[in-house]
Amino acid sequence: MEKTRLQKYAQLIARMGVNVQKGQDVFLNAELDQPEFVAMVTEELYKCGARKVFVEFNYQPLNKYHYQYRTLEAESTVENFEEAKMSYMSEHLPCRLFLDSSDPDGLKGVDMEKMSAAQQARFPITRKYRDSIDGRHQWCIAAVPGPQWAKKVFPNETEENAIEKLWEAILSTSRVDEDPIAAWEAHNKDIHARCQYLNDLNIETLEYHSSNGTDFRVGLIEGARFCGGAETTESGTVFNPNIPSEECFTSPKKGVAEGIVYSTKPLSYQGQLIEDFWVRFENGKAVEVHAEKNDELLHKMISMDEGAAYLGECALVPFNSPINETGLLFCNTLFDENACCHLALGRGFIDVIEDCHSKTKEEIQQLGINDSMIHQDFMIGSADLEITAHCKDGKTVAIFKNGTWAF
User: Fold this and answer.
1) Which residue from 131, 164, 198 is spatially nearest to 361, judged by alpha carbons?
2) Closest by alpha carbon to 191, among 244, 234, 263?
3) Residue 297 parent element (H or E)
4) Rounded to an integer, what distance in angstroms lies between the CA atom of residue 7 and that of residue 134?
5) pLDDT, position 356
6) CB count in 10 Å sphere of residue 78
7) Can you name the residues that pair with 30 across neighbouring β-strands?
8) What's the angle, vertex CA 12, arms to CA 10 and CA 15, rounded to 5?
9) How far is CA 239 from the centre of its chain?
10) Residues 341, 343, 344, CA angle at the centre, nearest 5°?
11) Of 49, 67, 100, 155, which sits with the fewest C-beta atoms within 10 Å of its C-beta?
12) pLDDT tens sequence across 285-342
């Protein structure tokens, strides 16, 4: 890939993604696939004024060995140095940057029971640190090609060509053109205007219908906002958490969801793909699910804790989004969730609540924000999806028609 385009992408991530501030630390997490680009981003972060950039590389085959050979007790233990790192983040609020290139099926064959049990055991210790930084720091997820991922997207290409084609898809959908900073400023303006329109409607419920069988109604929290594009930390720093991003999203009211939804793209969860599945809701809870592939994993996902079977997000994404118009199935949540409408099971977003930082966790949950150790997006958008808003003043407003915005 042309180095000047990669340089623009690195600048976009550093300046518009995490928007690192002078003297701020950055925790950068990446796979081993693109070390040259990791170095390029690291230099851009320092040019923006980062005090220290801490880079941590992951490697999926190692993770498989960890789950295979470690005892459940060892895998469940949060070591002192791990907790010290989380405590440091809680105190200093560094930027967190994730460069994803993982194989969507890279953990296939791992003992799901052991993995889930270890995550459940660690969560009571780690959640206090997660909650302490929520809404208070900048973070960003972006992507670079990995060979296994590239071959899944372009199975008929050589590995070299597949990586090059995936680079092109990542850069084009991330708006890396002649001036990506200006492109993102315009894009954020459009998303924010759409969110404002939705917020002004004062929507009570959203109703979804599609010819694939989706027939679903979900309640929204009174006063909760639709958000999207650039976000702002508690201290006022603007950042873009997802590159790319096409969604307007909110967190629905826990306990208010009825009907059935059908997936329209595979779901990558715990390094494995769940495919061709549906979820049926009663009183807000997923009471019945089925997948043609990895059904057991889907059932395990919704039983991770009490909140895992409830919704944490409703996201509106037009079916003619730039990502969907590539015609590619990315098998990667960052891209597929920004290709079409999606829901998420698990944890809701506190920052959709106005003045959320002045409220206690209990007050946030009483308003209807779901809490869980997971937040897992799954795609339900289709070419004929229709979404109707039922508003507090009694109006009925078309939000989506033929899979895209009706306004």
Assistant:
1) 131
2) 244
3) helix 295-301
4) 30
5) 87
6) 15
7) 57, 99
8) 105
9) 15
10) 140
11) 155
12) 999 999 999 999 999 999 999 999 999 999 999 999 999 999 999 999 999 999 999 9
